[in-house]
Amino acid sequence: MADQLTGERLLDDMSEAERARAERVESVLPALRAAAERADAEGDFPVEHVALLREAGLLGLVVPHEHGGLGGTLRDLAAATFAMGTACPSTALAYFFHNTSASRGLLPLEAIEAGLFDEEEIPPVRAFAAKVLDRMGSGVWLANFASESVKSSAANITIATTARRTDGGWVLDGEKSFGCATGVADYYLTTAKLEGHETAEGLATFFVPRDAPGVSTRAAWDGLGMRATANNGIRLDGVFIPEEEALTIPGAFTRMLRMSRGSFVGNQLAIAAVYTGCAQNVFDEVVGQLTRRTFADTGRPIASSPMHQQLIGEMSVNLETAYLWVRRQLDLETSQPPLRPKPEVFRQWRMGKGSVTEACFQVALGAFKASGTSGAMMGGVVGRALRDLAMGLVMTFPAERGRLEVAQMVTQAKENELFTTAERP
User: Fold this and answer.
1) Would you call 165 helix, strand, or coil by DSSP?
2) CA-closest candidate to residue 357, choices 316, 329, 300, 397
3) What is the dihedral of CA 356, 362, 365, 367, to 10 degrees?
4) Of 396 and 355, which is predicted with more confidence?
5) Residue 173: partners with Cβ closer than 8 Å, 6 or more residues away
6) Among 79-93, 117-131, 394-408, which is the least confidently predicted range?
7) In 10 A of CB 116, how many CB atoms?
8) Sign of CA dihedral 32, 387, 348, 110
């Protein structure tokens, strides 16, 4: 029997093709693991990982073969981010956000097939979608910039960045407060609202070159979570984007989102897989240490003490809880035919995201207690995991918001509006 791949700890029923793609992921894990401690200490994304992932073909993991990719699916992405999360969660998170860019190519093509675009709209939509996928398939790193510091009570993500028409294209102004691979990615795939539109129908997508005039990096992000993600964010000050580098058909953005199976871009559960991989790694590390080390007076493993047995039991339950939620969501979003209608799948994710991240954080907290003062090191596996997994408690939305929205869906049958627009401050 072949040795188990790291990704198979999450996805234990891989097909032959999925396993071949997972082997590519496995090949990069030693380098990711070797750089993790230094990357965390310095708070810098290891730029050598770009070439590493590109040469392994992994920047095109979920891109169809006809666009130069590996032809993977959400199952492959979840297995990949899980495996990378066991080695370097920061790289896994940045890699996840690169892959979310594929939705800007895949979902528009599905929307065309579903008849959501008029005949005259199809050529520019198809051309933009192909550009996204072709670039990813050729090894271009895309950073997906949507989130902003502007908040609205009506939505999770509020877009205030504006795009105004000019000769030959568009001019972008605004600030993106969250987005991995700042200064690392080749392009920032940026969401902005078209001038004259005040609803989500006016949201558009632009290819912003990393070094375009008017693009600058915000202050270094010294966050509590994954520190080596290059998560600084960008400022856009009169940035010109040619017409052919944008998808600006009103309503195109919202129409393509209708094609996702669950979360708004159809791949959000892969971020939960990052946290689960991190939790698995800290669990393995601490249990290994506790079973190898012994008490000086009895010679028995430290893991055999009643207190440590209790902590290990709690960690095991929390880790399994994370696995159950991720695997259930993966089944709901990839099964053919669909197991549940989209509103139920979406509702499951609103519950599942918080449940996974809270369970994973509890694994790290248990590892911290079990390892004692010897594990309370900023650069150690336990210390890094505590900080890395803390990010999951707030990223996108905390568990409390997800549960509140589920309660509203159940009691009021009220659909959650994900995006809205706002005036720039």
Assistant:
1) strand
2) 397
3) -90
4) 355
5) 161, 162, 164, 236, 237, 238, 239, 424
6) 394-408
7) 19
8) negative
Contacts 24+ apart (CB under 8 A), 36-41: 36/87, 36/88, 36/89, 36/90, 36/91, 36/228, 36/384, 37/379, 37/384, 39/88, 39/90, 39/91, 39/227, 39/228, 40/90, 40/227, 40/228, 40/379, 40/384, 41/378, 41/379
Upstream peptide bond of 337 is cis (omega within 30 degrees of 0): yes
Going by their DSSP bridges, the two strands 162-166 and 169-176 should be labelled as antiparallel
Structural domain boundaries in the chain:
6-100, 141-257, 269-394
CATH no., domain 269-394: 1.20.140.10
Whether 77 and 106 have beta carbons less than 8 Å apart is answered as no
Which CATH number is 141-257 given? 2.40.110.10
Q: Band the pLDDT of 157: cuts 50, 70, 90.
A: low
User: What's the CA gap between 235 and 238, in Å, rounded?
Assistant: 10
Residue 153's pLDDT band (cuts 50, 70, 90): very low
CA 63, CA 134: separation in Å to the nearest integer?
A: 8
